[in-house]
Amino acid sequence: MYKSTVKEIGPLALSFGEENIIILFGPKAPQEIKEISIIHEQNGDESAFPIQEGGKLVVDDQEFTISKVGSAANDNLKEIGHISIYFTEPFEEVLPGAVFASPHHLPTFKEGSKIEFK
């Protein structure tokens, strides 16, 4: 399991709504990355591979099913808090830091939102 809290929402973070993509990044993200990201900070224990196909992404009370996980997504999340979450059908070739989830709409984020992978 992985738990974090949204600390900041970049001014352009929700501008990828038409593509149904959200970028998560940890608090040490450079300023130019912060502008397009949802900045979150981990709080709590984590498992070695918190993001699993068939697992759940929960944002506050909104639940999504994870359908595909890129090869580096778990490591990126643990090391720098970064993944890109696509709320679409998976592409044929999944980028290493990508996660795909359904249903295919963006969750609602606010400062203080709780994010969990379980």
Q: What's the CATH superfamily, by name?
A: Phosphotransferase system, glucitol/sorbitol-specific IIA component
Radius of gyration: 13 Å
- Helix fraction, binned, reads 10-25%
What's the shape?
Answer: globular
Strand content: 35-45%
The total strand number stands at 8
**Overall CATH class:** Mainly Beta
Identify the CATH architecture.
Beta Barrel
H/E order of the elements?
A: EEHEEEHEEE
Q: Strand pairing plus helix content: what structural class?
A: mainly beta
Number of domains: 1
Average pLDDT: 94
- Briefly note the CATH topology name: M1 Pyruvate Kinase, Domain 3
- Biggest sheet layout: 8 strands, mixed, barrel
Low-confidence stretches: none
Structure description:
This protein is mainly β and 118 residues long. It has one domain (2-117): Phosphotransferase system, glucitol/sorbitol-specific IIA component (M1 Pyruvate Kinase, Domain 3). Helix content is 10%, strand content 36%. An 8-stranded mixed barrel has the order 1-3-2-6-7-5-4-8. A hairpin with a 2-residue loop joins strand 4 and strand 5 (62-69). It is globular. The mean pLDDT is 94.
